[in-house]
Design brief:
Blueprint lengths: L2 E7 L5 H12 L4 E3 L8 E8 L14 E9 L23 H9 L3 E5 L8 E2 L2 E2 H6 L9 E13 L3 E8 L5 H12 L3 E11 L2 E2 L6 H10 L2 H8 L12 E3 L2 H8 L4 E2 L8 E6 L3 E10 L2 E7 L3
Parallel strand pairs: 3-10, 12-14
Antiparallel strand pairs: 1-3, 2-3, 4-9, 4-10, 5-8, 6-7, 8-9, 10-11, 13-16, 14-15, 15-16
Helix pairs in contact: 1-5
Length: about 300
Amino acid sequence: MNGVVVIDKPPGFTSHDVVNRVRRILGQRAVGHLGTLDPSATGVLPIVLGNLTRLAQFYTHSEKTYNGVIRFGFATDTYDADGEPTTRSQDVHLNCDEVRALGAQFQGIIEQTPPPFSAKKIAGVPAYKLARKHKEVVLKPVKVEIKEFEILETTANEATFRARVASGTYIRSVAHEMGQKLGCGAHLASLRRTAVAEFAIDDAHTLQELEAAMQQGSTESFALTMLVHPRKLVPQLPSVTATEESAALIRTGRAVNLPEMSRAPQVKVFYGQRELIAIATRIAGTLFHPSIVFPT
């Protein structure tokens, strides 16, 4: 089976756990994901199946959107609710306007230090492996882009937010640094990813729904009801439908003329409405060469 299914990741699962679960449900080995989500977080985790795993290269810098809650009063070693407290607990009474003004400081291109419990590598070793062994973890600040960061409401010690960020941004670090600036400590209490690139939470299915659909229907009905329509994938590239003759040439890696695509530098090539057969790159004029071919 080839395609993309959007999973609503449950809490407590790593992204790799979800990939393994989907492998078992669908009974196929070629399964991957488009962007790691922390185990405690929930929400959008796009899963690529079969030959479409080769599309992952188009999603390495995808924009992401989150909703979540920051709890003020103490910090943790993981910067989220799964960690051990690293500061003494304090009673806090947040002022919503003050927290909103503080949140505004995190918008734009900023320098951010990744959490010690992260996949960032130190001398080739993931930081979280060192942190678990209680070894010193020193990570350098990196530039990230936070396109939107809005505090929606506050209670005495919690702030609910919405964020839209570029790839590589750690929301946990935002929570931790906000606690530092307020002098009371803070950590990420909960996080839900609502979008990755073109994939939104409204497109997502639970693992239970995926399993039920696989058991109850045919492969064709499963594809129609559970998989993202192939023409919605990689929306920055225009789509073109190949003739039977052109499709045969493209499948063997040969260049073809696509007269209707004279301006596009790269296109998605379909045979029929749903079968993505290639990503083709313009050589000159209307002549395109298939740079990625998706075997049937």
